[in-house]
Amino acid sequence: MKCLIIEDEPLALNLLESYVRRVEGLTLLKSYTNAVEAFTFLQSRTVDLLFLDIRLPQITGLDLLKSLKNRPPVIMTTAYRDYAVDAYDLDVVDYLLKPVTFERFLRSISKVYQVKQLVAPEVTAGPLTNDFDRAYIFLREDREMVKVFLKDILYIESLRDYVRVRTQDRQIITYQKISYLEQKLPETKFIRIHRSFLVAIDRVTAFTPVSVSIGDKVLPLGRNYKLQALRALHNDNVLF
């Protein structure tokens, strides 16, 4: 998706630019701090996604949006909640309050994918069944495919249409659903403990009827996953 950013605050602009560059499938065409200059650009160029601040010099982001005949999907950015109703009246996809976190940014991008009915990229897998120590998958991150050995994965966390894959040394955030990864990974090595968490069984250091610990990280044990998870963690001898 070709993106345009209109934002007059330097820190907010730099942050949005960095977020766009981190997400596979997004391309930053241009950034503007002035809505009038951006309007001229939009008369001759087509964009797939517009990040638009509300309080801008000369004309507001809302006035710019009203002036566009062919509006692209728009994500509004502002430090003020007061404009939310006006923004949604203009059919914006999402309304982000500053400062915008990367996880909140990803949720907005997920909404755009849903509006445009785009499909999540496939996970590319290496050998998953023979030798677990050598098995791996490739995950998209920052416009490249990153090789991740399954033995290095501690847990996977759902961020709606994205997941955070946590290893001992790093984390990878990629556009994919946790249910898809659950199907791809060997069930003898990974167990779903919550709608938002999938853990490596041999990385679990402690567990209770309500939580699972991986080192210092304590993860919730969901009611719908409790029985199956505890059986897997306790070798089918759970009496809870």
Throw out a few tags for this protein:
disordered C terminus, alpha/beta, OB fold (Dihydrolipoamide Acetyltransferase, E2P), Rossmann fold, 2 domains, five-stranded parallel beta sheet, five-stranded antiparallel beta sheet
Report what the structure shows.
The protein is α/β, with parallel strands linked by helices. It has two domains: 2-116, Response regulator (Rossmann fold), CATH 3.40.50.2300; 124-233, OB fold (Dihydrolipoamide Acetyltransferase, E2P) (Beta Barrel). Helices cover 28% and strands 32% of the residues. It contains seven helices and 16 strands. The chain has helices at residues 10-22, 35-44, 61-67, 84-89, 102-116, 178-184, 226-233, and strands spanning 2-6, 27-32, 49-53, 74-78, 94-97, 124-125, 136-141, 144-149, 153-159, 162-167, 171-175, 190-194, 197-200, 206-207, 211-214, 217-220. The strands form four sheets. A five-stranded parallel β-sheet has the order 2-1-3-4-5. Strands 11-10-9-13-12 form a five-stranded antiparallel β-sheet. Strands 6-7-8 form a three-stranded antiparallel β-sheet, with no helix packed on it. A hairpin with a 2-residue loop joins strand 9 (153-159) and strand 10. The chain is elongated and about 65 Å long.
